[in-house]
Amino acid sequence: MKFTLKEIANLVGGELVGDPHVVVTGISGIKEAREGDITFLANSKYYPLMKITRASAIITSKDVVDEKKPLIRTDNPSLAFTKVVELVAPNHIAHPQGIHPTAVIGKSSKLGSNVAIGPYVIIEEEVKIGDNTIIYGGCYIGHHTQVGSSCLIYPNVSIRERIQVGNRVIIHSGAVIGSDGFGFATVKGVQKKIPQIGTVAIEDDVEIGANVTIDRARFDKTIIGRGTKIDNLVQIAHNVVIGQNCIIVAQAGISGSTTLDKGVILAGQAGLVGHITIGEGTIVAAQAGVTKSIPSYSKVSGYPAKPHHLAKRVNACVQRLPELYKKIKELEEKIKKLEKKLSKSG
Fold first, then answer.
1. Does the annotation count 275 as an active-site position?
2. Marked catalytic residue, from 21, 144, 238, 308
3. What digits encode the pLDDT tens for the residues 199-216?
4. Are strands 190-193 and 184-187 parallel, antiparallel or unpaired?
5. What kind and span of H or E run contains 59?
6. Is 237 helix (H, G, I), strand (E, B) or coil?
7. pTM score, whole prediction
């Protein structure tokens, strides 16, 4: 498909700088782009690439000025580029349609209109599936679970019994929703399992990455708030409450009964202890270990996690430890020599 820059600028509501008749035939990253491609620049550290990219045009923020390339300047280059991707390279993946004959569906379960069920799906009794939901092959949906409308559930997802999934939820392959919370009591040196009889509630417009595990509550609910996006390989323990529009990045782990208020960002491999609260809008940096509650709109890093500006100072000191150790050894030697001189002259 071919589009002019003028057509693309109109689509994204951007300011066009340069020839409006330039034809775009493809999309690519700024490093890989070739003539005819449109690319985007959202991170200032890639500014030098604007001079060497072979792309025919670049979508940028409004503060970028470059006389060598046609630009489409926007408030949000990443969002604008997403719209262009959908225009220039639409997704032609054919989702399952209809009910595959190998699917096993409980007689008491109810499917909405235009539901698609792939091969070897198991849907237990008393399940409700909303309109236009697509369930790929190999998935399991347990008794009394409810899945909303326009959901997309990729292969080999397990959703256990009595789980609630909202509308327009996307769940990627290998995710397990509603596994037992990790609860045991030591009795005479033996670990006894504590029953986990709660559930999981996933609100509307949530996306859950591949191989994410979300444990059911011991009592009540583990909650994933509306609009939250969860990356691959994340562990969410029992009775965790995640607010609206949070971002949880890969390999993060959240211990039981911890609450994240809305808009929290957990970067990769962040770890949170249980029974704490992370305030609204807080950013937890990669590999941070959070051991206590954090007030709203904080930015923390390190282990144990502390305000980011303080953590940077601590880290700077740690990096100097070999040099400081060497200096202390030198000072110790000088002190010994001074002590010997003083003892002789005494």
1. no
2. 238
3. 999 999 999 999 999 999
4. antiparallel
5. strand 57-61
6. coil
7. 0.86
